[in-house]
Amino acid sequence: MNTPFGLREDQIERYARHIILPEMGGVGQKKLLSSSALIIGAGGLGTPAAQYLAAAGVGKLGLVDMDVVDLSNLQRQVLHHTPDVGIPKLESAKNKLSAMNPDVEIVTHETRLMSHNALDILKDYDVVLDGTDNFPARYLINDACVMLKKPLVHAGIFRFDGQILVIQPGEGPCYRCLFPDPPPEGMVPSCQEAGILGAVAGVLGVLQATEAIKILAEIGQPLVGRLLIFDALGMDFRKVKIPRDPDCAICGEHPTITELTDMELAPCQL
Ligand SMILES: [Zn+2]
Questions:
Q1: Which residues share a beta bridge with 137?
Q2: Residue 133: its pLDDT value, please?
Q3: Structural domain boundaries in the chain
Q4: 166 C-alpha to center of ligand 1: Å?
Q5: How many Cβ atoms sit within 10 Å of the Cβ of residue 221?
Q6: For the chain, counts of helices (H) and of strands (E)
Q7: Cα 30 to averaged position of ligand 1 atoms, centre (Å)
Q8: How far is the CA of 245 from the centre of ligand 1 (A)?
């Protein structure tokens, strides 16, 4: 049977609240269904982001992680439930996301993202979401996305605060334009030492999903060159304009970084 936009009848019903939005419509929903997103880290940021991307009908959702679910994750990683403690996060995530929306192909990459595999894993996706919270991974993901000219939704969380920036290589600043070098070791508490209000991870993860959906459906203005900073205690959102750095080591006029390298530090997701 012919249905509008080439969507199945059950899809028209499932995505009705999207399709009714003039900016999105059936055209935008079709774009989502034929697009792909990669989430690096199935933790505090990655799991809420994954839930909304799966619910939205993003056709292919890739997840990179190699941890198992720990009891201390459940305070914020809401895709994982108590019976999942001890099983791989990817298995837990895939079970829930597939049940949520069978339209979505869930691709699991059970590995640690490193310089030798990053380009190969990232190259097949339309947008990348960074759900890690350590500097080696952040710089690696940034550099790989700049090299592949792939949009990246960066977010970071710490205690009661969060930040988010969309990196659109060639159009706006990258993570290195903002922070040219990682902080010296010992200056930043490790993931095990830092506290985080669980709901703050949810806010930032859902903001990441929102930006990714806008990019994939080609609607609105992404947070390119505008760092959004969230302070939960004051319930304050503010934006800071970030210029592109012409001397940036990866996206500047004369880049000095021409290949990916690994920095030493065990990755984890807050
Ligand atoms: Zn840059």
A1: none
A2: 78
A3: 26-241
A4: 12
A5: 8
A6: 9, 8
A7: 32
A8: 6
Compute, in angstroms, the gap from residue 142 CA to the centroid of ligand 1.
9
Q: Ligand 1 centroid to 173 CA: how many Å?
A: 5
CB atoms within 10 A of CB 23: 12
pTM given for the model:
0.95
Q: How far apart are CA 99 and CA 264, in angstroms?
A: 37
CA of 244 to the centre of ligand 1 (A): 6
Tell me if 129 sits within 8 A of 39, measured CB to CB: yes
How confident is the model over 200-225, as pLDDT tens digits? 999 999 999 999 999 999 999 999 99
**pLDDT band (50, 70, 90) for residue 1:** low
The alpha carbon of 62 and the centre of ligand 1 are apart by a number of angstroms equal to 25
CATH 3.40.50.720 fits 26-241, yes or no: yes
Give 117 Cα–ligand 1 centroid separation in angstroms.
Answer: 22
Q: How far is the CA of 249 from the centre of ligand 1 (A)?
A: 7
What value does the mean pLDDT take over residues 57-83?
A: 97
